[in-house]
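User: I'm writing a tutorial on reading structure tokens. Could you give me a worked example: one chain, its sequence, then its tokens, then a sentence or two explaining what the tokens reveal?
Assistant: Sure. Here is the example chain.
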Amino acid sequence: MDTGWRRVPARSSRLQRCRGMQLGEFGVWTTYRAIGEDNAGEAAKLVEDLGYGTFWLGGSPRLPTVRPLLEATQRLVVATGIVNVWQYEPSVLAAEREQLAPAFPARLLLGIGIGHPERTREYVGPLSKMRDFFDGLDGAAAPVPREERCMAALGLKMLELSAQRSLGTLTYFVPVEHTGFARESVGADALIATELACVVDADADRARAKARSYASSYLGLSNYTSNLRTFGFTDEDIADGGSDRLIDAVIPHGTGEEIAAVVRQHLNAGANHVCLQPIGVSGVPREEWTALSAALVR
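And here are its predicted structure tokens:
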């Protein structure tokens, strides 16, 4: 596959049409498994105070579990990363959204995705499944507006669908080159929110060890490994926990300023928004969020 791409300038206007929803350029990504659900309110308030625009809750959350994040903050957008379409009926998701969104206008973004064949027994016809799920959201008693939802995507057809049926795409576990390809695929106006796992640690050996521990499960998932091969990584890069070249491209490490440089590469390649996921941390990553904010949020 030819992965050559030309820079298509990202535009911010479409990000503001959804009743004024403001994602900002930078957000954080975490899970309740990582930070503890009891710490949700405290963590969200810290993220807002540090100047981030969006709190991405990963781990295939059920939608009602995001309420404490919204209740603890005033401006922060809360996004799901991702609602798994094999685990939800679209009518149920739309009804749950209707219980939340009116109380928190322009602050709830549904990140929706197809998951992975290795983790889903029913996994078949993913593109058709996503289309059907969007049809269900559109036809629900309380429809989910197109620009209050985004879609996880890696390959061309899924990226195109994300731009056609939602605000845009959430990409995960990708090098900068993929961000450029995604921008070319979705056009100038669609959202590209790029997740960026990182290790805030200047010791390269220690940081790469943390990165490999995190990467091990993803390097066993065909959606991710196929995508990495498309962008020039080999079986040797993927084997044995990932080569230094692969690990450094997908999970940068270093000081806050060094990681911020990679964030800016994604923005220059076409991302509108980068959601940062410091890894190798126990509990709420207060120091890491603070260091990254100091380097990025001016």
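What the tokens reveal: Residues 204-218 form the longest helix (15 residues). The CA atoms of residues 187 and 224 lie 22 Å apart.
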